[in-house]
Design brief:
With 112 residues, the chain is mainly alpha-helical. It contains three helices and no strands. The longest helix is centred in the first third of the chain and has 48 residues.
């Protein structure tokens, strides 16, 4: 004996075909959404990359100003070191440490 069917064959066929169409529509919709999202993402990444590369590049005048400031900084440090060296060499000819007794220190404090 055949098993009882609650649905007719035509109804079963109609529902299965309807579900297949819905599945196909859903896959196409998801595919379009994914493609558009991927395209927007790629455009943003590429645009940000180009923007960073463009803004990171200095113009020749900015480059010259930066080099000039760097040279001035280095020269100022060299001058400071030379002044310190000259001052140290002029302080004591023999480079002996200054010797001061306690009496000298007290006299300086009192008489000044």
């Amino acid at each position: 004996m055949d098993k009882p069917n609650l649905l007719e064959n035509e109804t079963k066929f109609f529902l299965s075909q309807s579900l297949k169409k819905c599945n196909k529509f859903k896959e196409e919709y998801y595919n379009y959404v994914f493609n558009i999202g991927a395209f927007i993402f790629m455009v943003l990444v590429f645009g940000i990359f180009l923007l960073v590369k463009y803004r990171g590049k200095m113009s020749p005048t900015e480059k010259n100003e930066k080099d000039k400031k760097k040279k001035e900084y280095i020269l100022s440090k060299i001058r400071i070191m030379q002044d310190i060296k000259r001052q140290n060499s002029q302080d004591l000819i023999t480079n002996l440490p200054a010797w001061e007794s306690n009496d000298d220190i007290l006299n300086r404090k009192i008489y000044r």
